[in-house]
Write a structure and sequence with these properties.
The complex is a heterodimer. Chain A is an alpha/beta fold. Chain A is built from 10 helices and 10 strands. Chain B is globular and about 55 Å long. The chains are: A alpha/beta, B alpha/beta. At the A-B interface, α7, α8, α9 and α10 of A face α6, α9, α10 and α11 of B.
C-alpha cells in the first residue's frame, strides 16, 4: 500500500509562479498544502489561475510558460522534472479529470480501448501485464465502479456516441486507473446537466472516500465546493486571497473578495428558499 | 388582458426524427416574467426558436401579438422583430467584433428603419447608459469589454427598439459568479421598468401618471430560458419545466419550488447544489 499517512503532504506547492512568454503572470507565488486523504479545493473565477495550477501539478503546462517555485507530489519534485519521470508520476501518484471529458478522450478510439490502455499502463507500473480477457474484465469492472450500467456496450462506443455524463464517468475511471494519491478535479461537472452533476458528484464523493485519496477540486461554484471539500483556497488573479475551512470561508469570509464571491452565490441560493434541501433536523430550526 | 404569446398544443419535429416539442400550451401576459427551465435535450432552444419565429411550429398554434406567427411572412417577421428581441448566452460570439458598441446597439433601429442614423446613435447611447455603460462605451469595440460588459451591450441592443418581450437565453451562464449577480440585478431592474425603454424616453410617462394596475402591465415582459433554477427563482414569477419536449410543470415559481408536483421537478430540485445554511 503506497498511501501515505494522513499527516504527510501528498501535495506541497511552494512559491509557484507561472508566467507566459509575454511576461503575463498567471500564478503568482502560490503556496498550498494537501494532506493525504484530504479534500482540498481551489476556488476561483475564470482567469484566476486555478486550472493552470492543476495543470502545473500534473506537469502538463503548455510549452512556452515559465514555471518557478516547487511542486512536490508525494515528495517528488514536479517543476523541472524530465518528461519520463512526470509520466511515471502521472501513471502512479496523480490523476486529473477535466471539465470537458473530450479533452482527455481520443475521439477515434473506442472508450473501452482507451480505458484498457490506462489500466494496462497502471498495471505495468506495478510490474503486471494486463491483456486479452483479463484486460477486458478490468475494463468492465472499472466501468461498473463508475456506475456505468451497460458496461460492455459503452466499452464498444466511441466518445461521441456517449452522453456527457457517461464520457465524464469514463474519464474518471481513466484517472482512477492508477489509484492515484491525489486526484485533481478541474470543474469536473460544470459541463453537465444539473441532475447528472448531482450523480457524478455523488459518485466522486464515494470513490474518494473508498480509495482514501486526496483531491484537489478546482471550481468556481461555491455550493459544489461545499459538497466536495473540507478546506479551500480562494484564488484571484493568480494570488491566494485566503485559505481555510470551507465552512468558515462560506460563513465568515475575512477578505473582501471572498465576501463578494460568497454574497453573490448567497443571493442566488437564497432565491431558491428551501427548495431541494433535504428535509432534516436542521429544517426544523 | 390580451396575451402577448399564446401557445395551443404546440409541437415541433424535424422532418426526420421524433417530437422535439409536444403538446405545449401556455400564455404570456403583459408584464409577466416567464422562466423556462430544462436540461440539455429538453427542447429549450427549439422553443426559443419558435418564439423568435426562426422556425415554424409543426403542430398546434403559436399566436404572437394577436396573430398566428408565420415565419415565412416577411412583413409579419419585421413586425415580430420589433415585438420580441433576444439576448443570447455567449456575449463573446453574439457581438460583431468589427463594429463599435454604439453601432451594434443601434443596429435594430437601423435595420427595422425605426430611426435615422443620428437618432439611432443617440438612442444607442441612451440604451448603453440604461445598462450601466458610460458615454465612451459607444466608441469602443467588443474586445475592449469584459464578458459582463459585453452582456450589457447585448441587453442594450435588445432593448433599444423597445420590444414588448425580451427573450433571454441562458443570459448569465457564460459569466463569472460576481458578474452574474450584477447582470441578474440589471435584468431584475429592467423587468420592473415600464416598457423597457431607455430612461430619457421614459421620463415622459412618470410613474405617477400611471395607475398601479397599468404599471405591472407596462413592465417589460420577459422570457428567461435557463438550466439554472436559482436565476429563474430570482427573476421569474411563473416557471415552465420542460422535460423531453413536454411541459411537465407550469405554474407560479414559488409554488413549483416549494411543492413540485412532478417527479422530474423534484429530482431537478434535489439535484441543485445548495450552500450550507448561514
Amino acid at each position: 500500500m503506497k498511501a501515505p499517512g494522513a499527516n504527510d503532504a501528498v501535495l506541497e506547492v511552494r512559491g509557484l509562479t507561472v508566467q507566459t512568454a509575454q511576461g503575463l503572470t498567471l500564478v503568482d507565488g502560490l503556496d498550498l498544502h494537501v494532506a493525504g486523504g484530504e479534500r482540498f479545493a481551489v476556488i476561483g473565477e475564470s482567469g484566476s489561475g486555478k486550472s493552470v495550477t492543476g495543470l502545473a501539478v500534473m506537469g502538463l503546462l503548455p510549452q512556452g510558460l515559465t514555471v518557478r517555485g516547487s511542486i512536490r507530489v508525494c515528495g517528488e519534485e514536479v517543476v523541472g522534472a524530465p518528461e519520463r519521470r512526470l509520466r511515471r508520476l502521472r501513471g502512479s501518484r496523480v490523476g486529473i479529470v477535466f471539465q470537458e471529458p473530450l479533452t482527455a478522450l481520443d475521439p477515434l478510439t473506442r472508450l473501452g480501448a482507451q480505458l484498457g490502455e490506462a489500466l494496462a499502463r497502471a498495471a505495468s507500473a506495478e510490474g503486471r501485464r494486463l491483456r486479452g480477457a483479463g484486460r477486458r474484465r478490468a475494463v468492465r469492472e472499472a466501468l461498473e465502479a463508475v456506475q456505468i450500467d451497460d458496461a460492455d456496450r459503452l466499452a464498444r462506443a466511441y466518445p461521441h456516441e456517449a452522453s456527457g455524463g457517461q464520457r465524464q464517468r469514463v474519464a474518471i475511471a481513466m484517472a482512477l486507473a492508477c489509484k492515484p494519491d491525489v486526484l485533481i478535479l478541474d470543474e469536473p461537472t460544470t459541463a453537465l446537466d444539473v441532475t447528472v452533476q448531482a450523480e457524478v458528484l455523488g459518485l466522486l464523493r464515494r470513490l474518494v472516500a473508498d480509495n482514501g485519496m486526496a483531491t484537489l477540486f478546482v471550481s468556481h461554484d461555491l455550493a459544489v465546493v461545499a459538497a466536495m471539500a473540507e478546506r479551500a483556497l480562494v484564488l484571484r488573479a493568480g494570488r491566494a486571497v485566503e485559505t481555510g475551512e470551507v465552512t468558515t470561508l462560506l460563513t465568515a469570509p475575512r477578505k473582501a473578495y471572498t465576501r463578494e464571491l460568497v454574497a453573490a452565490a448567497r443571493a442566488l441560493d437564497d432565491s431558491l428558499g428551501d427548495a431541494g434541501r433535504a428535509p432534516g433536523p436542521e429544517g426544523w430550526s | 388582458m390580451t396575451a402577448l404569446y399564446r401557445l395551443e398544443d404546440v409541437g415541433f419535429r424535424y422532418r426526420t426524427g421524433g417530437d422535439v416539442l409536444d403538446g405545449l400550451s401556455f400564455r404570456l401576459t403583459p408584464g409577466e416574467h416567464l422562466g423556462i427551465v430544462g436540461e440539455s435535450g429538453a427542447g429549450k432552444s427549439t422553443l426559443l426558436r419558435l418564439l423568435l419565429g426562426l422556425a415554424p411550429v409543426t403542430r398546434g398554434r403559436l399566436v404572437a401579438d394577436g396573430r398566428p406567427l408565420n415565419p415565412r411572412d416577411p412583413a409579419q417577421m419585421r413586425a415580430h422583430r420589433r415585438f420580441v428581441q433576444p439576448v443570447f448566452q455567449d456575449p463573446y460570439s453574439s457581438l460583431d467584433p468589427r463594429q463599435r458598441a454604439g453601432r451594434i446597439v443601434g443596429e435594430p433601429l437601423r435595420s427595422l428603419r425605426l430611426a435615422d442614423r443620428r437618432s439611432a446613435d443617440a438612442r444607442a447611447r441612451a440604451a448603453l447608459a440604461e445598462v450601466g455603460l458610460g458615454d465612451d462605451a459607444a466608441e469602443r469595440y467588443p474586445d475592449q469589454f469584459s464578458g459582463g460588459q459585453r452582456q450589457r451591450i447585448a441587453i442594450a441592443r435588445a432593448l433599444v427598439a423597445r420590444p414588448r418581450v425580451l427573450l433571454a437565453d441562458e443570459p448569465v451562464s457564460a459569466l463569472d459568479m460576481v458578474t452574474r449577480g450584477r447582470i441578474i440585478d440589471l435584468l431584475e431592474r429592467i423587468g420592473r421598468a415600464p416598457g423597457g425603454g431607455t430612461p430619457g424616453e421614459r421620463t415622459s410617462t412618470t410613474t405617477s401618471d400611471v395607475p398601479a394596475a397599468r404599471q405591472a402591465e407596462r413592465a417589460l415582459t420577459m422570457v428567461i430560458v435557463s438550466h439554472d433554477l436559482s436565476i429563474i427563482a430570482r427573476l421569474c414569477s411563473v416557471v415552465l419545466v420542460l422535460y423531453r419536449g413536454r411541459a411537465v410543470e407550469y405554474g407560479p415559481t414559488r409554488s413549483v419550488l416549494d411543492s413540485p408536483a412532478q417527479p422530474y421537478t423534484r429530482k431537478l430540485l434535489s439535484s441543485l447544489p445548495r450552500l450550507p445554511r448561514p
